[in-house]
Amino acid sequence: MKRIYFILCIALLFAACKKEDQSAKLMDEYQALDDRISEELKTVDVPEVADSIIDAYIDEAFALQQALPGSEAAYAILKEIYYLLDMERKQQAFAILDAEGIESHDLQRYFDAFQAEQLTMAGMPYTDFTAFTKDGEAVALSSLVDKQDFLLVDFWASWCGPCRRLMPGLKELAAKFGDKLAIVSVSVDEDAEAWQKTVEDLGLTWLQLRDTNDEGSKTYGITAIPHTVLINRKGIILAHNPEHEQVAAIINQ
Question: Could you tell me whether strands 207-210 and 237-240 are parallel, antiparallel, or unpaired per DSSP bridges?
């Protein structure tokens, strides 16, 4: 009996060591992929070509993440590529991990964001949250949703270049569809003075709020800005990050 137990232990140890070796090999492959893509992107100045390279990178990296469920590589690679994955792939990525491992590998905040994204996808009812004016007045999203036909919630920050570049387009939407579309910008700035100065410098005239406790960001699973959410009068989420032309097309339907 002892001999059988000993043989079983050896077999389990061998299997564990083999899985560790496979996991290490996957990490080496991922690092090689990451290095190769980084070098390729340095030589590209055409956005469409860069997008194609990044798409290929996502495909290959995701395949490596899926190759050995529950391994160290599965956790580590997901942490590197999470922000590049669509909802379907995020779901598949977490499906091969366990709850204890997610927490021990410092992936809990990613998983929480993923769950929030699921609850606030296009077609779902909006989820309420509260943000604050420059004077500290609390404003609930629910107090804005049914005031006009559409509400565009813009998560941004003063230090975010892409966010600032979106503002002229938002101004055009506000000017063209002000009778149907309300806009509220929700800043994730920690520096209230920088937030207010940027609002003034950019001449932003619609409602400006600050997400002082990250309630809004966490509610909608927002891990990168700029991020916009379009909601209709009935409180249904129509789109995340729609192009300005898409917003106009939806309003004109």
Answer: unpaired
Q: What counts of helices (H) and strands (E) characterise the chain?
A: 10, 7
Determine the residue type at 209.
L
List, in sequence order, every residue forming a beta bridge with 139; answer none if it has no partner.
131
In 29-71, DSSP assigns E strands to none
* 130-252: CATH number: 3.40.30.10
* Ramachandran class of 191: left when φ > 0, alpha when ψ lies in -120 to 50, beta otherwise: beta
Q: Indicate the helix (H) or strand (E) that contains 99.
A: helix 99-104
Instruction: Give the up-direction half-sphere exposure of residue 103: CA atoms within 13 A in the CB hemisphere.
Output: 2
Indicate the Cα dihedral angle 200, 201, 204, 209, nearest 10°.
-50
Q: What is the mean pLDDT of residues 111-118?
A: 93
Domain ranges of the chain: 2-119, 130-252
* Lowest-confidence pick of 9-23, 103-117, 226-240: 9-23
pLDDT band at 44 (very low <50, low <70, confident <90, very high): confident
- Whole-model pTM: value is 0.79
Contact assessment for residue 220 and residue 119, using Cβ atoms and an 8 Å cutoff: no
